[in-house]
Amino acid sequence: MLKKKYIVGLLCLAWVTAILLPAPVEAASSITVGSLTSDAVIWRHIAKSPQAKKAGLKIKVREVSDPVGLNTATARGEIDVNAFQSVSYLKAYNHENKGKAQLAMLGTTYLEPMGIYSKKLKSLKQLKDSATVALANNPANTSRGLALLKTAGLIKLKANFNANSDETAISQNPHHLKFKEIDDNTGPRVLGDVDIALISNSVALAGHLNVLKDSLFHEKVNQSTKQDINVIATSTKNKHQAEYKKLVKLYHDPTIQKWIDHKFAGTKVEVQKPLSYLTK
């Protein structure tokens, strides 16, 4: 009888203890985000934010300088997710790496407008025939620059123009523009040597240029620029990971967006669209 009372007492104690003790806190999921330059700044801020903690995400940011290497590491699953590139850049990477590990998009982040800059002109109306145009030499930004020149009314492009096209896709060049290929990161430094230069906003920011204020012409968020929207990407084998998809929602948190807008003077234009928008 005494033994029974002892057992009952232990059971009651265990029951009371279970009620009084707080429920175990679920450990935050750890995700490594690979990024470059200004995007790495954003993700370091997000990683430390109360919003990330609330979402149950522990974010580790790995900043790299080689975008191709970062995509390769992400496609292989060596880095969980990356955030730095446009849709067209991702497609160009997959195209150039057919038969190898591929990338998949998780969600949209922003449009970082490419701009046309000049130290010699105050308006594109001043552009003379046979002017020299600096154009980035990587496939994604080459085609993007050509598309921007078309939107500005300076050239026309062939019907089969795509994210991997180069100057051979120009169908009409009425101003006889001469193209000078440059390394992506040298745009601001060559402005004194060319008439106009097409410069991505991340490079422009590093060169103390604001695309909204300093460019002669720049991209807008519309159907013509949807391939230039930046995305969060992962390997195709991990594209259904629920924890990775949480990063997209976290990026678009209003408090985080307010910080980004202030930090980058409005040059990272938020785009919150479903992935289906990019394929329409």
UniProtKB/TrEMBL annotation:
GO CC annotation, single: membrane
Entry-linked SUPFAM superfamilies: Periplasmic binding protein-like II (SSF53850)
Keywords of the record: Lipoprotein, Membrane, Palmitate, Signal
Top-rank taxon: Bacteria
Classification via Gene3D superfamilies: Periplasmic binding protein-like II (3.40.190.10)
Cellular compartments annotated: Membrane
InterPro entries the UniProt entry points to: Lipoprotein_NlpA
Topology of the protein relative to the lipid bilayer: Lipid-anchor
Principal subcellular localisation of the protein: membrane
Family: Belongs to the NlpA lipoprotein family.
PANTHER family, per the entry: D-METHIONINE-BINDING LIPOPROTEIN METQ (PTHR30429), LIPOPROTEIN (PTHR30429:SF3)
Protein name: Metal ABC transporter substrate-binding protein
Species for this entry: Loigolactobacillus coryniformis subsp. torquens DSM 20004 = KCTC 3535
